[in-house]
């Protein structure tokens, strides 16, 4: 990574404002999935071990610039304290006199967690005044929220422009893995893309066609490609506005772009729907494709088994419904068994991997779906671009 790391900063005795991604699901006052909190722990523990005073800030949900008790950080603070096993001082504000007063009387033990950054309209507007207020709370700034790096907000960009800044350990890990895939992959490099819409992945497909040896396409987006080939796709999801682009992509990609050969169809997207497997050129007019079929799983498995580097984003079907989850499960198991360097690009593919208990068999699971896709597409992420480079980088 070319960016300055938290390990390049002299943090001893310093207040360090750390942008973390604690945007976690909360139900009945309890955090129901603490993965994002766990992934931030190495940076927090490093700062504590180096004698720093970490002050953490994150967004939670979409409270739209107003206080909403439903999105208060208290449940997150409780879970963080359990995981870190150090005191967590949760403040009811992120900025202002009360926050400053409590920070000034803080004994420096453990960590401080500020209130939800999105309780303030200045956050999403990257407001200069809000950024200045946040910057006044600390001596240094560390960004460890890769999942928010594609947002030009006050806590990801504004503060970084005002304080000596660096990337946290999770941010560093994310950049290193994605750069390894994009800039110097061990070959064969196989990319797997799923999900509903071609439009969401168009830039990513184009970028990966230049870099990958094979691009496997599953999910509902494959039906736009099939319709572009003139196939009957029944009631399957299709983006009519992207048929020409799909046709052009197939012409440019040639054998590099691999589409399903069979699909699982049903009349409706429900668990008890009667389903069957058909070839892709034989989808009944009254049915919709909801998963890739077993022949496709074997076809994809062959490419995945040969791979030395894999990037995967997006499920192969409606994996939330067990009847249409077999394609995603088959691909996930093939990736886990491949022995390749495997990067799971956030989003629903992560949920699928977790559902199968395969997290530990993947090399890297990204904490940012949107951010990882934009990075792969070659877009500049504001939260990374603003961080200074290491000397000589």
- State the separation between the terminal residues, measured CA to CA: 9 Å
Strand content: 15-25%
Q: State mean pLDDT (0 to 100 scale).
A: 95
Number of strands: 17
User: Radius of gyration, rounded?
Assistant: 23 Å
Strand order of the largest sheet: 5-6-4-1-7-8
The geometry reads as elongated
How many H/I helical runs? Answer: 15
The major β-sheet equals: 6 strands, parallel
Structural class: alpha/beta
- The percentage helix is 25-40%
Low-confidence parts = none
Structure characteristics:
single chain; 393 residues; alpha/beta; six-stranded parallel sheet; 15 helices; 17 strands; 37% helix; elongated
Describe the overall structure.
The protein has 393 residues and is an alpha/beta fold. Helix content is 37%, strand content 16%. The chain contains 15 helices and 17 strands. It has helices at 35-49, 74-84, 97-104, 121-124, 128-135, 154-158, 169-183, 198-211, 222-228, 243-253, 294-306, 326-337, 348-355, 369-377, 382-385; strands spanning 15-19, 26-27, 30-31, 53-57, 88-90, 111-113, 140-143, 165-167, 189-193, 214-217, 257-258, 262-266, 275-279, 288-292, 309-313, 341-344, 364-365. A six-stranded parallel β-sheet has the order 5-6-4-1-7-8. The chain has a six-stranded parallel β-sheet with strand order 11-10-9-15-16-17, with helices on both faces. A three-stranded antiparallel β-sheet has the order 13-12-14. α8 crosses α14. It starts with 14 loop residues before the first strand and ends in an 8-residue tail after the last helix.
């Amino acid at each position: 990574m070319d960016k300055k790391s938290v390990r390049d900063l002299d943090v001893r005795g310093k207040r360090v404002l750390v942008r973390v991604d604690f945007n976690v699901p909360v139900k009945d006052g309890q955090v129901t999935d603490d993965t994002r909190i766990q992934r931030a722990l190495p940076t927090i523990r490093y700062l504590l071990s180096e004698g720093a005073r970490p002050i953490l800030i994150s967004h939670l949900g979409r409270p739209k610039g107003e206080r909403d008790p439903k999105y208060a950080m208290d449940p997150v603070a409780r879970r963080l304290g359990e995981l870190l096993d150090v005191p967590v001082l949760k403040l009811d504000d992120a900025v202002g006199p009360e926050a400053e007063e409590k920070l000034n009387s803080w004994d420096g033990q453990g960590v401080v967690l500020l209130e939800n950054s999105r309780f303030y309209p200045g956050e999403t507007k990257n407001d200069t005044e809000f950024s200045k207020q946040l910057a006044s709370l600390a001596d240094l700034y560390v960004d460890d929220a890769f999942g928010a790096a594609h947002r030009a907000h006050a806590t990801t960009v504004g503060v970084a422009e005002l304080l000596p800044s660096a990337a946290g350990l999770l941010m560093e890990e994310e950049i290193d893995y994605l750069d390894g895939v994009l800039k110097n992959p061990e070959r064969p490099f196989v990319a797997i893309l799923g999900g509903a819409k071609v439009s969401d992945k168009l830039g990513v497909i184009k970028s990966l066609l230049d870099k990958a040896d094979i691009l496997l396409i599953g999910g509902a987006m494959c039906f736009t490609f099939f319709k572009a080939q003139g196939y009957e796709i029944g009631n399957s999801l299709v983006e009519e506005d992207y048929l020409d682009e799909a046709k052009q992509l197939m012409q440019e990609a040639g054998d590099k772009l691999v589409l399903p050969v069979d699909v699982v169809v049903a009349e409706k997207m429900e668990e008890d729907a009667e389903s069957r497997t058909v070839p892709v050129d034989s989808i009944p007019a009254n049915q919709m494709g909801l998963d890739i079929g077993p022949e496709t799983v074997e076809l994809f498995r062959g490419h995945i088994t040969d791979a030395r580097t894999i990037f995967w984003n997006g499920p192969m079907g409606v994996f939330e419904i067990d009847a249409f989850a077999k394609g995603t499960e088959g691909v996930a198991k093939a990736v886990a068994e491949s022995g390749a360097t495997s990067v799971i690009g956030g989003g629903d593919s992560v949920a699928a991997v977790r559902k199968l208990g395969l997290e530990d068999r993947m090399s890297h699971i990204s904490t940012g779906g949107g951010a990882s896709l934009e990075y792969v597409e070659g877009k500049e992420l504001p939260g990374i671009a603003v961080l200074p480079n290491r000397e000589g980088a």
